[in-house]
Amino acid sequence: MNDIYTLHRGRTPLLLSLPHAGTRIPPAIAQKLQPRALQTEDTDWHLDKLYAFATALGASVITPSHSRYVVDLNRPSDNRPMYAGANNTELCPTRFFSGDALYRDGQAPDEAEVRQRVATYWHPYHDALRAELDRLRDEHGHALLWDGHSIKSELPWLFEGKLPDLNLGTANGHSCAPTLRAALAEVLQSQTDFTVAIDGRFKGGHITRHYGRPAEHIHAVQLEQCWSSYMREAPPYAWDEAIAARVQPLLRRLLQTMLAWRP
Fold this sequence. Notes:
Elements: E1 5-8, E2 14-17, H1 27-30, H2 47-50, E3 60-64, H3 111-140, E4 143-151, E5 166-169, H4 178-189, E6 196-198, H5 206-211, E7 218-226, H6 241-260
Parallel strand pairs: 2-3, 2-4, 4-7, 5-6
Antiparallel strand pairs: 1-3, 5-7
């Protein structure tokens, strides 16, 4: 554990990444933000609790300390948009997911500050993620990356209508082997409790697209799930044990499917 991220090293080929679970905002950045931003409303809430079973399965887990408002670890460091032609939040976001301004007037970070944040927060997380994937591949012959995310089910500034409950992204099949994609899709599509999309609105962000290299024996997928599948969507964004208990067995099956798969 350090000030930037926490890494638990597991005994299987699987690494669970939760890049938007952090909530810390340094004081020098906090004073530039709108007061509303200090509630970090766009956090991927409670994912460490939702996936608490992963370590018992032998997975490695990496989680950042800082909020996506400081720097978005699931964006490329050159700030290329993830979804061309749609509203996107940036490497150092300047808007809430509602589209409202995140910073006080004239306080948004300039290019020099963005570069400094990338050096301080983005690179250490990605260096650790890459090193752990390399360790797992060296030890097991292949590495598996599960990039876990969650989001409010309705956000008009970002997408139309209500999102499916569970959104599996594999960069249209490029970030993992076809047989792994098919196995995970079968698990999702064989149940009726939750709505599902495969490579729909969420095809995988930078982490899935960059690290998912099947030819190099690293297979990556992203799961973006609605908050409503495990928590309350209104402030204070509380964990709901009864709702979470419905989806956790399915998440466990998905991670077990990853672990049971062989190249």
